[in-house]
Amino acid sequence: MAGSNRRSATTAARGTAASGGRRRIIDYPRRGYRGLHRWLPSWRFVVGSVIGFVFLCLGLGVAAYALTDVPAPDEFVEAQKSTVLYADGSPMGTFPGPNRTIVEYESLPEFMGQAVVSAEDRTFFENQGISITGMARAFINNVRGGATQGGSTLTQQYVERYYVGQTTTGYVGKAKEALLAIKIAQSETKEQILGRYLNTIYFGRDAYGVEAASQAYFGHPSADLTVSEAALLAGVIPSPNNWDPAVSPEKAQQRWEYVLDGMVRDGYLTQADRDAQTFPAIAEYQRNETYGGTTGYLLQYVKRELTATGSITDEMISSGGLTITTTIEPGVQQNAVNAVQNMRDGGLSDGEKPADALKVGVVSIDPATGGILSLYGGSDFLADQIDRASRDRIQGGSTFKPFTLIAALENGIPLTQRYSGVSPQTFEGWGPDPVNNFGGQDFGRIDLVKATEQSVNTVYAQLNLEVGPEKTAEVAGRAGVTSPVSSVPSNVLGADIVSPLEMASAYATIAAQGVYHKPFMVDQATYPDGDVAYSGETQPVQSFDAGVMADTTYAMTQVVEAGSGERYISPLDRPIAGKTGTSSQNKSAWFVGFTPQIATAVGLSQVGDNGKDQVTITPWGGVAEITGSTYPAELWASYMSNVFQMPRFSEIVQFPERANVNRAAVPTSEPTTSAPVETQAPEPEQPTTVAVPSGLTGQLSGDAQAALQNAGLVPSVAEEFNAAATGTVLGVSPGEGSQVAPGSTVTLRVSKGPEPAPQPTQQPTEQAGNNGQGGNNGQAGGNAVNPGTGG
Fold first, then answer.
1. Is 670 a catalytic residue?
2. 203 and 253 both lie in a single domain
3. 420 lies in a domain?
4. If 0-12 CB within 10 Å is exposed, 13-18 middle and 19+ buried, where does residue 378 land?
C-alpha cells in the first residue's frame, strides 16, 4: 500500500512538472528531475547531438572540399640550374640542379610501381586518396605521445612533393592536404599519380626521380630495373641519404627485405620468386664533377658568399636559375693555377718536387674595390675540401709587422726612430725567453725602415711593447684581418693564425692608401627575369690616414728593393711593396705584396700524416728550410710576372711619396736600453701640392676613389639623393684640377639614387663577403715567446 502511494506521488509530480511551462526543443538540463538525474542527458539528446555533429562536420567538409582548388605544380618541377660566370662573362661552371630525367610511367617495369605501393601505401590502388584508418591510427599514437606519425597515403605524399613543394605539418595543414589528395584522386588516374610521384621524389645520391636513381645506384636506365633493384629503390625512399647501401648496408638490407615481403603479402610476387631474389650490386657513388679541380673552390666560395646573406638559399642556387657574375679574372686565375702547378712539378727547383702534403693558398684582390681577382685553394676540391686560401688558417709570421708599424706611426713614432737590433735581447714585459733575429743576425742601432727591410725581430719586439700589442691587434682588424688577434706582445711576430684571403685584404687596404673594401667574389647575381638578387661590392671605409699609409708602403718597398724579398721580387722592375713571413719551426711561410692595382698573398703550409696537424714544411730543391724569402717569394714573382703582362695590370703606377709623418715628434724612450734614441736628419721637403685629377665627375664612385688614391689624396664620399644612377660622382670638392697639399681629403658627391616616396622601408640585408670558418689546422700560439722567425 505504501509503495503504491509512492508511485502515485511520483506520477503526480511528473505530471505537475510536465504541465508547468512549454515543451523545450532541447530538454537539458532535464525538467521534472532532481539531483543527478536532472544532469544526465536522455538517449534521445545523445543520439540527436551525435547526428547533428556528424552532419555539421559533413557540411563543413563538403564546403571545404568545394572551396579547395588544385594548384599548379610546384616550381621545383621546372627547376633550373644556376650558372656562374667569370668577370668577362665566360662560363665558370654551373651549380648542380635537380638531377632528374622525366620518364613515362608505361616505360617502367610494372613491379617498380608495385614495390613502391607495397613499401609506402598498400591500399593505394583502392583508396580515394586518403586512409581514414591510417590517419586515425596516427592521431591516436600522437595523442599518446608516441613517435610522430603522419598517416599519409602515397597520394598525400605526391601532393606534398608535386603540388605543395614542402612537407605539410600540423593538423590543419594535414586536413588541407587530405582534401587536396581526395580531389586529385578524382581527377587523375592512379597511373598518372604514381608516375609523377616516381619522377619527382628524391632517392639520394643527388638523384631526383626513378630514372636518375637507377643510373646513380645501378648504372643503367630505369626500364632495365630488376625486381631486386626496384625493391631497393622503394626501400630507401623515406630516408635516402641515411639508408643508402654505401652508408648503412644493414639498414638497406632490412628495408629491401621489408619491401619484398610486402610485395608477397600484396600479391605482386610469389614466395618462390621472393626466395630467389639476391641483394643487388650497387654502383660506386660518383660525386658530381662540378666541383672537381681548382674551380671547385671558386664555386664553393660563391655559394658561401651568397648564402651568407640569409636571403639566398642553397635551393635557390641549385634550382633558381640564377646568373652569377664573379669578380674572378680568368687570365689572372689561370696564371695563379699555372704558377702553383709549375712549383709542384719542380719548375722552381730544377725538377725536385715538394712533398705531396704541401698546402698552397693564393689570393689576389683589387685594392680599389675589394673584388677577388683570383683564388687558389688547392689542386682538386674533390680530393681536399679545405680551401687553403680562404678557410684554412696558418700562423702569419712576420707579415704582421706592418700592423705594428702602422700602430707606431698612428701614435707619434716616425720611421726615423732608431732601436737596438742586436740579437738576442730580453725585454721586460715580453717574457723570460730572449727574442732572436732570423739566423741570429746582429744589427746596430737602426731605424724602422731598416728594421722592416731586414725583418728585425728584436726591433719590432721593442716597438710592439712601446705602442702596445692591443693596438697591433686593433690595426690588423681595421685593415681586414677577421680572425681573432691576441693582444700579447708576440702578436707582432705572427703568433696568430690567419688565412691568405685575410692577409691579401689587409695589404690591399694599405695599397688603397688606407681605404678598406670588404672582399667579395660575386659581382652580381640576377634572377631569370633580370632582377638583381645580390650585389657584392660594399661601401668603402677610410680606415687609416693616407700619410701613415704612404710611410708604411715606403718601408715595405724596401723589403723588395734591398731586403728579404729582393732576390725574386726586385727583378720584376716596378714599384712593389710587400713582406715575407715565416712561423716558428717553419710550419708556415708567406709572401704578401702589392702594387697600386693588385694585392696578392701566397701562403705555404704542410699537414701531417693525419691530414690535419700542421708540421714543419719539408725542404726541397736544395733549400735548407722553407722561409718566406724562398719559395713563397719565388712563387709570387712567377705568378705576378705573367699578370703584369696583362693589359689591365701592365701600366707601372707609382706609390705615393713618403710622407714622413711625425718627423717633428720628440723621440720616446726605448723600453730596453738607457742609451738615447737617435733621429735622422729630416729628408728634403717633397713637392708641396698635387692636382686633383680631372674627369672624376660622371665616373663611378669606386673608380674616382682609386684615381684620388693614386694621386696621393684621401677620398671622402658624401651621398645624396639624385636622379643620376646610384654610385655616380656628381661633383668634387676641391674642384677638379685644383692644387692641394699631398694627403689632402677630397670630397666626392655621390648619387644614391632618386629619393624614395615616404613609406616604411625594410632594413637592407647585410651583404657578405664570407671568409668562412673551418680548416683550423693549427692553433694560434698567442702566448708563444718567439713564434716568428722573420724570414
1. no
2. yes
3. no
4. buried
Residue linked to cell 650497387: 282
Rounded Cα distance, 272 and 265, in Å: 13
Q: How many domains does the chain have?
A: 3
**Strands of 486-549, DSSP E:** 497-498, 515-516, 522-526, 532-535, 541-542
Would the pLDDT of 317 be above 80? yes
Residue-range definition of the domain harbouring residue 724: 690-751
pLDDT of residue 139 exceeding 50: no
- DSSP H/E element including 111: helix 110-120
Which residue type, as a one-letter code, is found at position 252? A
**485 close to 491: Cβ distance less than 8 angstroms:** yes
Contact 598, 649 (CB under 8 A): yes
- For the sheet containing 532-535, what is the strand order? 91-94, 83-85, 323-326, 522-526, 532-535
Q: Alpha helix (H) ranges present in 266-320?
A: 271-276, 295-307, 314-319
Q: How many CB atoms lie within 10 A of CB 143?
A: 8
pLDDT of amino acid 476: 98
Respond yes or no on whether the N-terminal peptide bond of residue 29 is cis (omega within 30° of 0): yes
Say whether both 62 and 116 belong to one domain. Answer: no
Among the residue ranges 369-373, 533-537, 644-648, 704-708, the one predicted with the least confidence is 704-708
C-alpha cell of residue 36: 543527478
In the chain, what percentage of residues exceed pLDDT 70?
Answer: 77
Residue 246 shares a structural domain with residue 199: yes
Task: Based on the residue annotation, tell me whether 152 is a catalytic residue of this protein.
Answer: no
CATH code for the domain in which residue 703 is found: 3.30.10.20
Among residues 716, 734, 751, the one where a domain terminates is 751
Residue 116 and residue 52 in one domain: no
Residues, the chain: 791
Are 56 and 109 members of one domain? no
What is the CATH number for 175?
1.10.3810.10
Please indicate, yes or no, if residue 354 is contained in any of the structural domains: no
Query: pLDDT of 404-448, one tens digit each?
Result: 999 999 999 999 999 999 999 999 999 899 999 998 899 989 999
Over 80: is that where the pLDDT of 469 sits? yes
Residue 59 and residue 112 in one domain: no
pLDDT at 78 over 60: no
Cell readout for 131 is: 586512409
Is residue 336 scored above 50 in pLDDT?
yes
Question: Catalytic residue among 222, 228, 318, 398, which?
Answer: 398
Residue 271 vs residues 228, 276, 759: alpha-carbon distances, Å: 14, 9, 72
Residue burial 688-710, b: 16+ Cβ < 10 Å; e: rest? eebebbeebeebbbbebbbbbbb
Around Cβ 526, how many Cβ atoms within 10 Å?
A: 16
250 and 123 together in one domain: yes
- Could you read off the pLDDT of 246-290 as tens digits, one per residue? 989 999 999 999 999 999 999 999 999 999 999 999 998 876 678
Beta bridge partners of 358: 606
Tell me the pLDDT band of 745, cut-offs 50, 70 and 90: confident
Does residue 627 fall inside a structural domain?
no
The residue from 120, 211, 229, 537 that is catalytic is 120
Does 349 reside within a domain?
Answer: no
Looking at the structure, do residues 59 and 116 belong to the same domain, yes or no?
A: no
Q: What is the pLDDT of residue 79?
A: 63
- Pairing assessment for the beta strands 515-516 and 541-542 based on DSSP bridges: antiparallel
